[in-house]
Amino acid sequence: RVLVNADPSALLLGRWQLSEFRLEAPQLWVERNRQGQWNWARFVADASGPAKPESGKKSELPKLLVQEFAIQQGQVKLSDQLGGAHERFNLSPVNFRLTDLSTLPENGAYTLHAVLADGAQFDWKGSLRLQPLQSSGEARVRGFRLASIWDYVKPQFAVAPPKGELALQARYQFDLSGKQAQLTVAPFAAKLNHLQLTAPTSGSVIRLPQLALNN
Fold first, then answer.
1. Strand partners, 166
2. What are phi and psi of 205, to 5 degrees?
3. Residue 177 in contact with residue 48, Cβ under 8 Å?
4. How far apart, in whole angstroms, are the C-alpha atoms of residue 77 and residue 74?
5. Closest alpha carbon to 136 in 170, 178, 174, 181
């Protein structure tokens, strides 16, 4: 079910504005067959249709502002048949909330800004084309707390929710114009601050002031 609470008066300013956009119990099934093809890639190619000739006019993302975006009780299933094995991954429930989600233009480029429920900030700036699907740009995450995703990770790690904050920054290029998707991420930088892990039975603690990865 989808709940949309729109603000039609924002159309007078030339943008779409929603005070709330909520998805209830969505399901995402991702599958790769034995030929290495992802179902989402086929879906995007079919939905986009054949590539249109260049018109010289730059396509634009819709100007959108969502004050609150939420996913409740979602489910993600992953099935990978490449190499003969049939590995499965199931993530449920998925509860996700963003505030101040914006695609308003800035300095001539597309931008996306969002704030997670724990205060982490996500920023993206770059280009996007749908026919064929191509994108390039720079993404940055700041103040992401490891404990905020621990409900999804704890089945594989029997430790208490860790302490620590993660920051990421990367440039990327993505191209789906050929038979195979191509993704390049460079340069990439990450910094993990104030990591602390505690063993469940003995109470032993591992502390790491900072772990940095550059270029």
1. 144, 192
2. -125, 140
3. no
4. 10
5. 174
pLDDT computed for residue 193 by the predictor:
95
DSSP-assigned letter for residue 37: -
pTM greater than 0.70: no
176 φ, ψ (degrees, to nearest 5): -120, 25
Write down the residue that tokens 């396509």 correspond to: 59
Report the C-alpha gap between 165 and 147 in whole angstroms.
Answer: 9
Token match 């998805």: residue?
23
The 10s digit of each residue's pLDDT in 105-143 is 665 567 777 787 778 888 888 887 766 778 889 999 999
Tokens of 157: 């790690």
Q: Answer yes or no: is pLDDT of 100 > 70.
A: yes
Q: Where are the beta strands (DSSP E) in the chain?
A: 2-6, 16-24, 27-32, 64-80, 87-102, 110-116, 121-130, 133-145, 163-175, 182-198, 205-213
Name the residue among 193, 148, 178 with its Cα closest to residue 37. 178
**Distance of alpha carbon 127 from alpha carbon 138, whole angstroms:** 10
The C-alpha atoms of residue 190 and residue 142 are separated, in whole angstroms, by: 10
The answer to whether the beta carbons of residues 113 and 67 sit under 8 Å apart is no
